[in-house]
Amino acid sequence: MDILQYIKEPWPWYISGMAIAAVMLLLIFAGRSFGFSSNLKTICAMCGAGRHVKFFNYNWRKDTWNLLFLAGSVAGGFIGHQYLSSPEPLKLSAATVSDIGKLGFEPPKGIQPEELFAVESLGNIKVIALLIIGGLFIGFGTRWAGGCTSGHAISGLSNLQLPSLISVIGFFIGGLLMTHLLFPLIFHS
Asked: What's CA 144's distance to the chain center, in Å?
């Protein structure tokens, strides 16, 4: 198998795990932590929001290094999609397809239920409401918890921070409640 074909295959979980661990060790030794939502705070402060909202009035220049994470995510997503994605659909396990069916959704043609994630689903008022209300909850929760899932689950847990452990437990409880209680009520009532 040539190297390009190998790169286009889904990589094993342990490759990502080792890469995340290596980055976290480097950040710990550098005395830094990261999270995706902190980039929004930095961008707002860069654009002058600190003149109007005290929360954004801080020395944002010390956090510009974290913008590399944001830029790398966008660039990596583009490169991955344009040059490294396989034309073959991802093969979900039979157990995953069964679990999605038990939630009341059609078997996905790709990796996620089209009733929620296809462009056509934007015509469904339930999906629009879910996106708006979910976005507000995520924004509020991120601010209240002092960070997002990536910041707490990767950076905070690797630094053995108790608030991050509590936040991650809350994220999982919220995800389970949404999946097993609210989705069936919203979409199949």
From this structure: 17
